[in-house]
Write a structure and sequence with these properties.
The protein is mainly β. The protein has 3 domains: 2-177, Immunoglobulins (Immunoglobulin-like); 183-279, Immunoglobulins (Immunoglobulin-like, Sandwich); 293-325. Helix content is 13%, strand content 47%. The chain has 2 helices and 22 strands. The strands form 6 sheets. A 5-stranded mixed sheet has the order 2-13-12-8-10, with no helix packed on it. Strands 16, 18, 20, 21 and 22 form a 5-stranded antiparallel sheet that branches. The longest helix is centred in the last third of the chain and has 31 residues, at 294-324. This is S-layer domain protein. The chain crosses the membrane at residues 298-320.
């Protein structure tokens, strides 16, 4: 009977279990750490490059912690001939897990509408894992501007998806279109050219919002010899900057009939452009032969005086001869 009582008491089990305690777990995140457009301002018809860098800026995450507590109540009884008082026994087990904070890049896509078009690979799929604090290798997209695109700022969309539906990005990317060319200004030029050396001075002005490269001034004119002969190499000109160039120009002969012209070629990004030729108009009626020496000028002056005096005395002689008759 006592044994049955003990077994009954042991069978009366009160279980208080599964009382979890969760910490704030947080989530990894995706960020567009850098977007660059080259050139920074495109001209109509230009091709450019958009470079994107993605990162996981999360540096640490709080893991999930779970504690399970089991409580048992025992009544009074007899064990091995000895009386046992009532008592309680409690056991607790705590477990925790910390996520690694990595993300898997499932899709990166650049979406554009006219007048901007993505001409390279538009979509990258299954790019791999991106750990906490890591930056992914740069992704590049090639874009092209329509030839008739109006000046302005156009918005593209960078779409980023990960293996976590709650972690994504729809990031705006802005592309500037500006059609302003370089400007060529005539600084100084002679009234007429000759077989002697004359000088033409030009100012090259960059009115664009971005720097341009590969700038050269190219002269043209079949009736002339230029120095520099083929082009004046400038190099790069920054936004809003001015560069002055000088050409020595000589007419090939005294009967020249043309006008020299100058154009500027330059690169905006990887795109070549050139300005309208600037024509230097001169007076072709002016004497273009090489100037005579001072001695020759004096000789011509003396001969002129002698001729005038001879004409005067000749007139007097004829007049007096008539009077005598």
């Amino acid at each position: 009977m006592k044994l049955l009582k003990v077994l009954g008491i042991l069978a009366v089990l009160l279980l208080v279990a599964a009382v979890p305690a969760y910490a704030d777990t947080g989530k990894p995140s995706i960020a567009v750490s850098d977007v660059s457009v080259s050139p920074t301002a495109l001209m109509p018809g230009d091709t450019g490059t958009i470079t994107v860098r993605l990162s996981n800026p999360t540096t640490s995450l709080t893991g999930e912690s779970k504690t399970q507590t089991d409580t048992y109540n025992y009544g009074a009884g007899v064990s091995n001939g000895m009386a046992t008082p009532s008592h309680q026994s409690t056991t607790s087990v705590t477990s925790s897990s910390t996520p690694d904070g990595a993300l898997t890049l499932k899709e990166v896509m650049l979406i554009a509408d006219a007048p901007i078009h993505v001409t390279s690979k538009q979509q990258y799929l299954d790019l791999g894992r991106l750990g906490m604090g890591d930056t992914f290798q740069p992704l590049k997209f090639t874009i092209k501007v329509d030839d008739n695109a109006a000046d302005g700022i156009y918005q593209l969309t960078l779409k980023i998806r990960t293996n976590d539906d709650g972690v994504y990005q729809n990031c705006p990317v802005y592309v500037t279109v500006n059609s302003k060319p370089l400007k060529v200004v005539l600084n100084d030029a002679p009234q007429a050219f000759s077989t002697a050396r004359k000088t033409v001075v030009l100012d090259i002005v960059n009115l664009r919002p971005n720097a341009v490269d590969g700038v050269s001034v190219v002269p043209s004119g079949e009736d002339f010899v230029f120095k520099p002969i083929q082009e004046y190499v400038v190099g790069s000109i920054g936004a809003g900057e001015l560069y002055t160039v000088q050409f020595d120009v000589t007419a090939k002969n005294s009967s020249y009939s043309g006008n020299p012209s100058f154009k500027v070629v330059y690169k905006n990004g990887d795109n070549w452009h050139e300005t309208e030729p600037l024509v230097v108009y001169t007076d072709h009626n002016s004497a273009v032969a090489a100037p005579a020496s001072a001695g020759s000028d004096m000789l011509l002056y003396v001969l002129g005086i002698v001729a005038v005096v001879a004409m005067i005395f000749g007139g007097i002689y004829v007049y007096m001869k008539g009077r005598r008759k």
